[in-house]
Amino acid sequence: MSTKADRVRLAMVGTGGMARHHTSRIAQQQDTTEIAWVCEPSGQAYELFCEKMEEFGVTPPPNEPDLETLLTKHGDELDAAFIITPHVLHHSQAKACLEAGVDVLLEKPMVMSGSEAEDLIATRDRTGRLLVVSFNGSLSPQIRKAADLLHSGSLGSIMNVHAVAWQSWKVGTTGSWRQNPEISGGGFLFDTGAHMLNTVSDLVNEDFVEVAAWLDNRGTPVDILGSVMARTRSGAFITLSACGDAIKSCHSDVRIFCTDAILRTGIWGEHLELQRNGETALTPVEVPPSLGQWETFLRVRNGEMKNPCPPEVGLRMARLWDMIQASAAQGGKPVFAN
């Protein structure tokens, strides 16, 4: 049986709704993890977090609302940080934790831009700390198996990728920070749709060299609808469709057409199906059960598995988002990678 000294000492940076969702699972892993500190400026959010901890019979950790103060005074009491805050804070908070010698599990999207992604990778390399981006898709066994199949060449070369995501996002986020572009960095395509951008970036495993995009705000400050056409360095064609004003729903579909097979999955790794040349239908591909984001992070940290979503994937996605915004600002005019 593990002792308190064996457990990873975790700081939860942000305790909003998504953080409380993750906490429901982490709080049940007292043998591996001690939530030692919280960094949350909102008293109400911290109270709700404490209530969630108490549901599992766990004494709520103390709260230091200022991250710089937390790291300065208590950084030596921490092994890792799980950052679950508004998008604009991700870069500075992850950088501060890495520089304080703390490993980081960073909620999606990794950063707001390609330049921030490059800086975070440089910080990771300079500090030698671990940085895992908490994308459901890339951390799922379905997407990892799909990536292994595609990258091995056993399905042939990728010709086309078509991905779509839809959700009743506009109504559900009205009045929240998610519709404030200075904080969110974008709308539906950069929030729920970030899962689509990241999963496709992960699966194609190469840079995008040409992008044409159109965004429609539907009367809000941020994008609600999005349509993207892109080309990868090897010549694969990519189409991405995002509808954040759908009827009450939330779903996705990703289809990859290779020279020797068709692969179907979802942006969160909801399923995985494959149809090889000569077969008549898509059939499910068996994969191991999901470990979840925190369990996966622990295994990577313990050297038991390769990092399934390193910041290099986040960089590819961030550059794609930069190109999408640049093209959409010009009415869909194609933009090219430097």
What does this structure look like?
With 338 residues, the protein is α/β, with parallel strands linked by helices. The protein has two domains: 131 residues, Rossmann fold, CATH 3.40.50; 179 residues, Dihydrodipicolinate Reductase, domain 2 (2-Layer Sandwich), CATH 3.30.360. The protein is built from eleven helices and 14 strands. A nine-stranded mixed beta sheet has the order 13-12-11-10-6-9-8-7-14, with helices on one face. The chain has a five-stranded parallel beta sheet with strand order 2-1-3-4-5, with helices on both faces. Helix 6 runs parallel beside helix 9. The protein is globular and about 55 Å long. The protein starts with 7 loop residues before the first strand and ends with a strand. The model has no long low-confidence stretch (mean pLDDT 96).
